[in-house]
Write a structure and sequence with these properties.
heterodimer, A: 65 residues, alpha+beta, 2 domains, 3-stranded antiparallel β-sheet, B: 520 residues, alpha/beta, Rossmann fold, 9-stranded mixed β-sheet, 7-stranded mixed β-sheet, 13 helices, 16 strands
Chain lengths: 65, 520
């Protein structure tokens, strides 16, 4: 979630490989945007992993492991 | 015939030499074209074990076939002189030199004085002219590079400590590697010549502090230089090549000698050969500020005389922030090639350290996506810094906005990778060596766990792994336990910082991995 909800649909629609506009936006988000501070959220557990100075920390704590 | 002589004017290099070449008009052109086509026989030092890889890169990028000096870390190939810039961009080579002459079966006299006299006499018979032209051409290339380097934010990587150079010597190490010697070159430049080497004219040499003590017994090669210091003070100014006037060049001789049955040491050979070079060209011997580095490589009955084309070893090119065990870029490149990366491949280094492998990967295979991870916060920080340095360096070359790199760094646990099962094409990594990081005992537990997790994330059937390790016993044992997911395809024996290591190419079997992670 980059705070720009109108840009990308929640799921890729069928035939997305041919949708150049969609592909451009996807490419931009994947390869041209770098998150410097923020977090990644696990879709299953909801656990947030911090991102600091561009580097996400995905280590689990002792009790989580 | 002299070394200073008539400077070359290569058509393509005309701009670069403009500074020194003022006033040379169209008459220069035909000579320039001739020089560009001059066939240069180039020798390159590469990580031992990766000679074949380097030869493939040469064929791919230069179209030339190579002769391989197997397991000696050297390859030889012929290119037109105008290809020198591309030669310098090869990513599998540590150092380059132009071959003056090669002797496949040189008969050394048994008596020391005779053998050395033969070497001295050899000097005037060698075909120096063309190789020296190549050397001059190479110089003009270097000048261009030096100007650019001044704009970079980071200082040249080679000034860092040679962290994987380690200490050489030790009686159990047979056949010292030339590339380790080359890696120490900036150090050796000050230190070499620690042994007494007398100038033929009787001026005693100045002994620098010898940092690498090496026994010159039968097997190991010793690096030495012929040297002399002038009592009357050095002639000022290196001068510009291309000024049209013969200027006195400074030189040194570096001799690497290996094999038994030589009645002389490398120091002696370097000294006497150097003396003859000095007489022949009327150059000045200078250990530290030399223009020409003459190489005398002796391996049993094989003798190669060359002129160095590189000063700092190329292998630290990408890394500015070193860690205790930073892998050299040429070795990283060799490992990556072994994976045969295909466009759109996802390539992961799950124990990336300072990031040598993924950084090399992103530079050379930009059509793949490279992911680097480590559990150690220092390592992750250094890797991130190395990437930033590289991006900044590329920024200054172009006026357009800097592009990012297909490369990311994360902090993670190798046994719990946050990557989906079967989603990765290639795993490449330098596995922890018991001696430098961690311990052998830790490796017993770590290796099988790593292999399992790497097997999980790798695509069944098409996935592959290239793993460097010194703990071969532990690795073999771990591999035997995971035969259902990994099959050994190839092994390359290498030398890393004086330690004998192995690079294993593994192929992921078609068997799908279980998603549930076993507890180790």
């Amino acid at each position: 979630k980059l705070g720009r909800p109108s840009e990308l649909p929640p799921e890729p629609s069928p035939g997305y490989e041919a949708d150049e506009e969609f592909l451009r936006r996807l490419h931009h988000v994947l390869l041209e945007v770098e998150v410097l501070e923020g977090s990644l959220q696990c879709p299953d557990s909801g656990r947030r992993f911090p991102i600091s100075r561009g580097v996400p920390n995905l280590l689990l704590s002792e009790d989580e492991a | 015939e002299g070394g200073g002589g008539h400077p070359p004017r290569a058509a393509g290099m005309a701009q670069a030499e403009a500074a020194g070449d003022a006033g040379l008009g169209p008459a220069a052109a035909p000579e320039g074209a001739e020089l560009a086509e001059l066939a240069a026989v180039i020798g390159a030092t590469v990580p031992t074990g990766f000679e074949q890889t380097a030869a493939e890169e040469v064929r791919e990028k230069l179209g030339s076939a190579s002769r391989i000096s197997k397991d000696r870390g050297k390859i030889y190939f012929e290119v037109p002189a105008r290809s020198l810039p591309q030669v310098h961009r090869l990513r599998s080579v540590d150092n380059l030199f132009v071959v003056v002459q090669e002797f496949k079966d040189y008969q050394f006299k048994e008596n020391k004085e005779d053998a050395l006299k033969d070497l001295e006499d050899l000097v005037k018979k060698l075909p120096w002219t063309d190789p020296l032209k190549v050397w001059e051409l190479n110089n003009s290339l270097k000048k261009k590079k030096t100007k650019r380097k001044k704009h970079n934010l980071q200082s040249p990587a080679s000034r860092g400590k040679p962290s994987d150079g380690g200490e050489e010597g030790g009686a159990d190490q047979s056949n010292t590697n030339d590339q380790e010697d080359c890696a120490q070159a900036p150090v050796a430049a000050e230190a070499a010549g620690g042994q007494d080497a007398e100038h033929p004219q009787g001026v005693t040499s100045r002994n620098g502090a010898e940092e690498e003590e090496e026994e010159d017994s039968e097997q190991p090669a010793v690096r030495a230089g012929a040297q002399a210091s002038s009592e009357s003070g050095s002639k000022a100014g290196e001068g510009q090549t291309g000024e049209g006037e013969a200027k006195v060049l400074r030189f040194r001789v570096t001799c690497n000698r290996a094999g038994d049955k030589h009645s002389f040491t490398s120091n002696e050979a370097a000294r006497d050969f150097g003396g003859a070079v000095q007489e022949h060209f009327q150059w000045k011997a200078d250990m530290t500020n030399f223009d020409v580095e003459v190489l005398l490589n002796i391996h049993s009955s094989e003798v190669v005389v060359g002129i160095a084309l590189t000063e700092e070893s190329l292998h630290r090119r990408n890394i500015t922030h070193f860690g205790p065990t930073t892998l050299r870029s040429t070795l990283a490149y060799g490992m990556l090639r072994l994976c045969d990366p295909q466009p759109t491949d996802i390539i992961v280094d799950p124990m990336c350290g300072t990031g040598a492998i993924p950084i090399e990967g992103a530079a050379e295979w930009p059509c793949c996506y490279h992911i680097a991870g480590d559990n150690n916060p220092q390592a992750v920080k250094r890797a991130a810094n190395n990437i930033s340095s590289l991006l900044r360096k590329n920024e200054s070359k172009d006026s357009s906005a800097a592009l990012g790199a297909p490369l990311d760094v994360l902090q993670w646990d190798i046994c719990r990778l946050p990557l989906r099962t079967g989603s990765v094409d290639v795993v490449v990594t330098d596995m922890p060596f018991g001696k430098r990081i961690g311990s052998k005992k830790k490796n017993w537990d770590l290796y099988p766990a790593c292999l399992m997790e790497m097997g999980r994330i790798c695509t069944p059937g098409t996935g592959r792994a290239v793993l460097l390790t010194q703990d071969k016993k532990c690795f073999a044992k771990a591999l035997s336990r995971v035969g259902h997911i990994w099959r050994r395809a190839q092994t390359v024996w290498v030398n890393v910082g004086g330690l004998h290591a192995a690079v294993y190419l593994l192929r992921r079997t078609p068997e799908p991995a279980q998603d549930a992670r076993p507890c180790w």
